[in-house]
Specification:
elongated; three-stranded antiparallel β-sheet; alpha+beta; 2 helices
Length: 109
């Protein structure tokens, strides 16, 4: 059993700042496993962050290669979900961060 909650992302939402670099605000979904045994009451429950539009949070087919790698390791997929056959997280990390500057080979003065 799980509890799914949707919260607005603002570049800092998610685990450890998941969403940094995304152009537009995105909605995030966190999957929180419920306790199945009474002896788990004091243990930390792992969170799994997905984009709200993730079609199948538990399905590998709904995630990019990085998301599949993370899911296979049983850790948080960190929003590496496929939306319209593309991963916005990977696209954001592959995008140049600013205008390219010619390298002068030395420190700026």
């Amino acid at each position: 059993m799980e509890d799914a909650r949707v919260a607005p992302g603002d570049g800092g939402a998610g685990a450890g700042g998941a969403g940094a670099g995304l152009d537009a605000r995105v909605l995030w979904r966190v999957i929180v496993p419920t306790m199945t045994r009474p002896d788990q009451a004091g243990s930390a429950r792992p969170l799994a962050w997905h984009l709200a539009d993730c079609a199948a949070p538990h399905g590998a087919e709904a995630h990019c290669a990085e998301g599949r790698r993370l899911l296979a390791a049983a850790v948080d997929p960190d929003g590496h979900c496929l939306i319209d056959a593309a991963c916005p997280r990977c696209a954001a990390s592959n995008r140049p961060t600013g205008p390219s500057q010619p390298d002068s080979g030395g420190p700026e003065r």
